[in-house]
Amino acid sequence: KLNHEEAVKIACKAAAQLMDAGLKVFCPIAHSHHIREKGGVELPLTHEFWLGQDKPFVDAASMLIVVMMKGWSESKGVAWEIDEFAQAGKPILYWPWKDDEDIRELTDELI
After folding, report:
1. What is the maximum span of the chain, computed from C-alpha positions, in angstroms?
2. How many CB atoms lie within 10 A of CB 66?
3. Is residue 110 within 8 Å of 95, Cβ to Cβ?
4. pLDDT tens across 77-101, in order?
5. Within 10 Å of residue 23's Cβ, how many Cβ atoms?
6. Is 64 helix (H, G, I), strand (E, B) or coil?
7. Does the structure show a pLDDT above 60 at 32?
8. Is residue 106 predicted with pLDDT exceeding 80?
9. What is the mean pLDDT of the chain?
10. How many other β-carbons are positioned within 10 Å of the β-carbon of residue 10?
């Protein structure tokens, strides 16, 4: 399993690639990590607090892309997101993460 900093780095890289390909992206780990680290306020580390922050974005999203980085299947947050999207009948795409992959083929199917 990746440590938190490694997971944040991969999540940011994946989100940037998807944005560069023209997709509109909300990435919970990238969004929340930097706010907590740089915000100047002591925000909770609890799962419940961050799910509450993410829920409106999850509800508004039209699909979920799961970046299958090392340890992704052990993440409580990813499991929650998959469950939310499945219950809503929204599509879920699983992206086997490779650092040097050209994602144009993947994103051509989504745009």
Report:
1. 41
2. 18
3. no
4. 999 999 999 999 999 999 988 866 6
5. 15
6. strand
7. yes
8. no
9. 88
10. 19
